[in-house]
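Hi everyone,

Forwarding the result from last night's run.
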Amino acid sequence: MQIATTHTGSDFDALASLVAASVLYPGIKLVLPNYINPNLKVFLSIHKDLFNFYSAKDINLDEVTSIVIVDTNSWRRLEGLISLKEKKDLEVTLYDHHDKKDIEFDHGVQKEIGATITLMLKEIQRQKKIITPIQATLFLMGIYEDTGNLTFSSTTSDDAYCAAFLLDRKADLSIVNKFLQHSYGRKQKDILFKMLQKTERININNFTLSISIIEIKGRIQNLSVVIQMYREIINVDAAFGIFYDNKTKKCMVIGRSGSKEIDIGIMMRSFGGGGHPGAGSAQIKDVNPEAIESMILELIKGNQHSSVNLSDIMSYPVITVDQDTKIEEVAMLLREVGCTGLPVTGDDEKLVGIISRRDFKRVKKKSQMLSPVKAFMSRNPVSIAFDKSTMEAAKLMIKHDIGRIPIMKDEKIIGIVTRSDTMLYFYDLLPD
């Protein structure tokens, strides 16, 4: 059995690319995730009978011998199909316009471009496949949505040429406009007004940006539209919205960029989300919004990304202090080594805490400088196993609002990774 699928939270580019797979591979079964974005739901409520979609639960994975994956290169974003990653002799074809991630493929194209559907249209044109007007219309929606009507900095000439090709194939602009008109109601207006009221422009590395932290209640759709409007109104290179719900303890982070040098997709992947150079988002739980803001600022200060192992960026040997060391000695050591915190060890050199400069704020009296460090250290320290990824370390830093994490093996500290170290991971700053 041959199937084609796309990422959960599907947008028009994902749907268009999925349908294009049926043009390129006749007889293929199209597996559409259950979770799709609101605009897509409206479109499919009218047009679903024109397409033959399956859900993952309809597919016997044992019978799948070939899979076409579109608009994503991450196995974890494939709803109900991630187990295929371990299947031997599975033929994988991939079409995607994001940075390469974890899907190894046998055929297809992975290239940074405005929209995935553009890559597939080039193959459709090469094979001289015939497409219907409704397919052309859907394909054009995919291009327009992911390129901001050909205005995003990630747009290429290929996207524009393919848009012209689709118009020549009777793509209906009135339908495109109807379904790409995002919902913008009172809730969205109120949020935009709050963002504009507290606007702060930040200048970093000759870029102008703005980061807005807004509390929301419940799920509010189309916040991405608010961010896009916000960026255009205040005229900055990049704008970010951090929307947090105190009840659910969830944060939605959304970014929009008008500069080729600020890649939102890469930044959002550092938070466990995704996107492309002009736009992206991530959802994080149990996180301090201010910690996310700090990480965004540090990411902007960097350059671009590389992929390394956690062991490649950790610092070692690690300077530690015994739990009975006096506070005044720790203060001198921090100044001497020029760092902001140190792991604290107890019996058998086991990690028992972390002492950082912020902990010294609790030292109120001079006599307390003679107290052991265990009286002021942060207990229940966050640590990470040596075989975990750098991405997981970065997520822990964001979640717990901390600047360093000890790396453990057999209950012993073998290294330490700092917030600055993670920047070396996301941006290609490691020495050769």
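The CA atoms of residues 216 and 245 lie 5 Å apart.

Cheers,
N.
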